[in-house]
Amino acid sequence: MSTSFFGKYIVPEAATLRNTDSYRTIPPIDDGAAREVLYGGTRLLNLASNNYLGLSSHPELIEAATKAATRHGCSSGASRLITGNFALAETLEAELATFKHQEAALVTSSGYAANLAVFTALADRHTVVFSDRLNHASIIDGVLLSGARLVRYRHLDMGHLERLLAREALVDKKIIVTDSVFSMDGDVAPLARLVELGKAHGALIVVDEAHAMGVLGRGRGLTAALGLSEDVDVHVGTLSKALGSLGGYVAGRVETIELLRNRGRSFIFSTALPPAVLGASLAALRHIKSNPGLGARLMRLSKQIRDHLIGLGFDTMGSTTQIIPVSCGRNRVALHAQALLRAEGLLVAAVRPPTVPQGTARLRLSLRADLTDDDLKRIRLGFSRLRVTFFP
């Protein structure tokens, strides 16, 4: 061990971090995807998980995962390109492609890995990537790993994007990338205008549907809800949120998926997803296809809670989805509000920089379709009391 490096850099940096309100610890939670969780021995209503449809413990998923593990074991044993392939993976990819109205799909070990695969396969140092300023970190990291030049446009500002595209008119290889639903704000991208700009400037269009998959567009995402499935070139998503499992995917044309399979570093150099995960993901996809109204129910109850919060005077930062932020500004305010809500029996995330920009700390509610009427009453009561006691 390099004791000089450890003592000179790591120890003081860790000590400095511990003394700030940006310091993070893993919460003392058991069964963190459940509707109710044990937090340090206290039962709380879980408004922090991305298990948007409550499928992680659904009997169909558990049965499918159990059958797959019983038949195939616990590990894939290698990369998909070596020996880590299963017929389950190929079936899942085929059904994902059909569900997304695309020619082909590729499953990856996570949504993060999916974005890394996209950009390491499709971009290089001759590419300019135009990215919404609030896009997920995995998009930014994928662009940086590819060696492409990153140009960030102001959040949802299509006028700014248009000017940046015009400025780079002589660049031949251009990609526009956006989240469809933004994970910390709960607002949605203006995809119709973005598609128009992409076509006008000859840019490849990549949309990450991580927080829309299973929820919007009868489960197919925002692109499907807006009738833009065929206009978007590359569809990225995750199996770990509304689908209640693990992994990511990319869907698009056959040639695009071939490039990812051969050049996507996070796909090539990762052990493939294990059989149980593949089984659960396939069961979740089929469940959503058979129950396309699940997301619509989630949107209805989300509007009820959002309207209540706005009525109390909280700033929900333009959210229109199941992700509802409550603006706090300072880190300390968000942490204090989070603690008060825990006392009311509600587990809500306190999101602070660097996850969000400086000065924009917030509470983040991640609502879920399996919330009961009593749960909704608890949420309304808890935030009403928070308003009275902490935001008078």
Percent helix = 40-55%
Could you say which overall geometry the principal axes of the C-alpha atoms support?
globular
Number of strands: 14
The rounded Rg comes to 21 Å
Number of helices: 14
Report the span from N to C terminus. Answer: 53 Å
Mean pLDDT: 95
Instruction: Classify the fold: give the CATH topology of the largest domain.
Output: Aspartate Aminotransferase, domain 2
Low-confidence stretches: none
Q: Report the CATH C-level class of the largest domain.
A: Alpha Beta
Count of discrete structural domains: 2
Give an overview in words.
Homodimer. Pathway: Cofactor biosynthesis; biotin biosynthesis. Belongs to the class-II pyridoxal-phosphate-dependent aminotransferase family. BioF subfamily. This protein is α/β, with parallel strands linked by helices. It has two domains: 21-50 and 293-390, Aspartate Aminotransferase, domain 1; 59-290, 3-Layer(aba) Sandwich (Aspartate Aminotransferase, domain 2), CATH 3.40.640.10. It is built from 14 helices and 14 strands. It has helices at residues 3-18, 59-72, 87-99, 111-122, 137-146, 158-167, 191-200, 222-225, 254-263, 265-268, 275-290, 294-312, 331-343, 373-390, and strands at 29-30, 36-39, 42-46, 104-108, 127-132, 149-153, 173-179, 204-208, 234-238, 248-252, 323-329, 346-347, 349-351, 361-366. The strands form three sheets. The chain has a seven-stranded mixed sheet with strand order 4-10-9-8-7-5-6, with helices on both faces. Strand 7 (173-179), helix 7 and strand 8 form a beta-alpha-beta unit. Helix 2 runs antiparallel to helix 11 (275-290). The longest helix has 19 residues, at 294-312. The radius of gyration is 21 Å and the shape is globular. The N and C termini lie far apart (53 Å).
